[in-house]
């Protein structure tokens, strides 16, 4: 064995255990592939596996390395069903985040709560629990692998029986419902229908106020609402995706572009959306370069 090979093997042995075991479950429910905008994440990783297996932690083949070391998992209501997204948190973002290894370790950050008026059907086999709609509990969780463990983002799993007593199931999580709730504007406008201005009188109470503003299939849209959790914390992200829309039995794929913002101040979602810094750079930098090149050639 030459000196280089020996030193390389020695460096592997001396790696900190946290670096050697930084793997996360990386997957999402199949429904999210065509409705990625509901995750509020700007990036959909190309190698993300969309599978029904994402609802459990039994498929070890869904694990992948995570350079940032912070794993994420979330439960999201979609079409009357619980859907999942799990992965390395940095893989979903193109901007800085406050959810770093330093503030997620050693105690995971986990929040849950009722998702407004959303309900979902029990997706367990008939006869075990029943078919009555259950009030939906949305959840977000960030974690860092401890010691020699890996794949820490496998704790959130749907079961109608467990959600009947979410306080017991989400042990170690914070229920935003018990925190001081904020008053938020509650309205929607799309395709010329609805009124959702900053002065809209309808309100709701929630831990986070949310605002989604952009366009769907070229039509201006804005939604203001209350949510119990936020996958971005108190921040914004620009989302571009295609979302499926069923019209008269025909599934249409419509372009969706919007700024998703979450805030925690009173009526804070009545304000104009704050565009992410990274998105501004993506717009401004090409303009600056074009001017520099133009003046350079002119000279």
Automatic annotation (TrEMBL):
The keyword Signal is assigned to this record: yes
Originating species: Pristionchus entomophagus
Signal peptide: 1-20
Record keywords, A-Z: Signal
Protein name (record): Uncharacterized protein
């Amino acid at each position: 064995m030459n000196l280089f090979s020996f030193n390389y093997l020695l460096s592997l042995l001396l790696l900190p255990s946290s670096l050697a075991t930084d793997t996360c479950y990386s997957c999402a429910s199949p429904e999210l592939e065509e409705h990625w905008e509901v995750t509020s994440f700007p990036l959909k990783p190309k190698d993300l596996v969309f599978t029904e297996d994402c609802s459990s932690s039994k498929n070890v083949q869904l694990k992948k390395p995570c350079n940032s070391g912070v794993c994420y998992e979330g439960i999201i209501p979609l079409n009357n069903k619980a859907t999942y997204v799990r992965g390395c948190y940095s893989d979903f973002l193109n901007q800085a985040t406050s959810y770093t290894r330093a503030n997620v370790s050693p105690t995971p950050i986990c929040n849950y709560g009722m998702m407004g008026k959303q309900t979902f059907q029990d997706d367990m086999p008939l006869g075990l629990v029943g078919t009555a709609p259950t009030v939906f509990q949305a959840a977000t969780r960030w974690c860092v692998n401890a010691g020699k463990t890996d794949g820490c983002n496998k704790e959130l799993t749907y079961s109608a029986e467990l959600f009947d007593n979410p306080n017991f199931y989400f042990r170690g999580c914070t229920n935003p419902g018990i925190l001081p709730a904020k008053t938020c504007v509650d309205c929607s406008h799309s395709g010329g229908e609805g009124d959702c201005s900053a002065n809209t009188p309808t309100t709701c109470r929630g831990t986070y106020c949310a605002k989604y503003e952009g366009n769907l299939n070229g039509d201006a849209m804005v939604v203001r609402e209350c949510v119990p959790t936020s996958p971005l914390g108190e921040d914004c992200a620009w989302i571009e995706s295609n979302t499926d829309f069923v019209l008269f039995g025909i599934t249409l794929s419509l372009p969706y572009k919007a700024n998703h913002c979450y805030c925690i101040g009173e009526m804070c979602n009545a304000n104009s959306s704050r565009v992410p810094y990274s998105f501004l750079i993506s717009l401004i930098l090409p303009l600056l370069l074009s001017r520099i090149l133009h003046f350079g050639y002119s000279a």
